[in-house]
Amino acid sequence: MKYKTIAVITSISDAKLLKNIHPDLIEFRADLKNSPLTTLKKIKNFTKKLKIICTIRPKYEGGGYYLSENSRLKLFEKLIPFCDIVDIELYSKILEKVIVLAQKNRKKTIISYHNFNFTPENSELKKIISRASKFKPWAVKIATFIKKDKDFWRLFDFCKKYSKKYRLGIIPMGQKGTPGRILFPFFGSKLAYGYISKTVAPGQSDINALLKLKKIDPEKIKKLF
After folding, report:
1. Which domain holds residue 118?
2. Phi and psi for 110 in degrees, rounded to 5?
3. Could you report the per-residue pLDDT of 160-216, keeping only the tens digit for each?
4. Does the structure show a pLDDT above 80 at 72?
């Protein structure tokens, strides 16, 4: 599978801008909206041809949802029928329940892991992939903060190696990680997230830039590394 460009949207106004933007997928960040169900239904009307990833990111993993996990599960129950792919965190208490909900509604899943402080050692990253893969998700997303240049290149090598075996979205975060959001998809990462109007993660790229870069012959990029 070639990598997918994903436009992150948080509002109806973002969805309206998609008339002139053509990503492969869109991610609706329900945790950043006061009336997520109403907003999602309207977004679906604007983006009938685009598949929607539904994300309700909790505060403990860098998101805006601060209520209980049971409340979040109930919100997933309402939103899942109106999306195509469900993002759920690997270490969430409601992981298995959300997966069951997705399966009942015939939706795909992305199992995600975020670390906004550092990039774990490769041994830990492998454990994350192994644990997530047991649930047979459509993709495993790993987003980690890059503190030092050596962490960037370590994650780059990890992406090249393990994306050959697993469908991974490897995303480096922070200022030092920004180049990797553009580079990693050419070396195996299957998910490239970009903002439309405002960033929702450290170092996130503009979706328009990602779409322009996707037109480049990947072999030309690979020759540079």
Report:
1. 4-222
2. -115, 125
3. 999 999 999 999 999 999 999 999 999 999 999 999 988 888 888 999 999 998 888
4. yes
DSSP 27-54: EEEGGG-SSHHHHHHHHHHHTTTSEEEE
The residues with which 8 forms a beta bridge, in sequence order, are 27, 195
In single-letter form, the type of residue at position 80 comes to I
CATH number at residue 149: 3.20.20.70
| Terminal Cα distance for the chain, rounded | 21
What is the β-pairing status of strands 108-115 and 205-206? unpaired
What integer is the mean pLDDT of 78-87? 97
List all residues 6 or more positions away from 66 whose beta carbon is below 8 Å from its beta carbon: 58, 59
Task: Say how many domains are in the chain.
Answer: 1
Catalytic residues: 114, 141
pLDDT number for residue 1:
67
Which tokens is 134 given? 């047991």
